[in-house]
């Protein structure tokens, strides 16, 4: 069975790439989507990662209730979730500015509502 693991992972990755993600007209959300597609999507569009999935409204409800500042802080500083999944600071992309990270959070919150 182990020999099938790599092809299955590749198929899962292709599925996330083929999936359609929301687009918005607002410039900040467009910029956030670009950041999200380049960095955040790797986990937030792959259920196996343990990260809350972008289109899963129920997974985001409790996070949204904490407010944007808490979400920004989590994205900027990183965290370990209740299920043990780790989100590295800045989505493991230290080249992203605070404004880019916040725009990506804004995109994810808009997409999850």
Uncertain runs are 1-11
Our count of helices gives 5
Write the H/E string, N to C: HHHHEEH
Strand content: under 5%
Mean of pLDDT:
86
Shape: globular
Percent range of helical residues: 55-70%
Q: Indicate the radius of gyration in whole angstroms.
A: 14 Å
Number-wise, the strands total 2
Q: Pairing-aware structural class of the strands and helices?
A: mainly alpha
Distance between the termini: 39 Å
Strand order of the largest sheet: 1-2
How does the major sheet shape up?
2 strands, antiparallel
How would you characterize the overall build of this protein?
The protein is mainly α. It is built from five helices and two strands. It has helices at 5-18, 27-44, 57-65, 68-77, 98-111, and strands spanning 79-80, 86-87. The longest helix has 18 residues, at 27-44. It is globular.
Which features does this protein show?
single chain, 113 residues, mainly alpha, 2 strands, disordered N terminus
Brief summary:
The protein has 113 residues and is mostly helical. Helix content is 58%, strand content 4%. The protein has helices spanning 5-18, 27-44, 57-65, 68-77, 98-111, and strands spanning 79-80, 86-87.
Q: What does the secondary structure layout of this molecule look like, with pairings?
A:
Layout: H1 5-18, H2 27-44, H3 57-65, H4 68-77, E1 79-80, E2 86-87, H5 98-111
Antiparallel strand pairs: 1-2
Helix pairs in contact: 2-5, 4-5
């Amino acid at each position: 069975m182990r020999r099938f693991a790599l092809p299955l992972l590749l198929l899962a990755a292709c599925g996330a790439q083929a999936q359609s993600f929301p687009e918005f007209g607002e410039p900040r959300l467009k910029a956030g989507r670009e950041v999200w597609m380049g960095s955040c999507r790797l986990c937030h569009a792959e259920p196996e990662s343990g990260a809350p999935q972008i289109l899963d409204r129920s997974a985001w409800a409790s996070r949204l209730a904490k407010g944007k500042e808490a979400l920004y802080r989590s994205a900027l500083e990183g965290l370990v979730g209740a299920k043990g999944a780790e989100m590295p600071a800045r989505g493991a992309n230290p080249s992203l500015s605070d404004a880019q990270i916040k725009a990506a959070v804004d995109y994810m919150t808009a997409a999850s509502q």
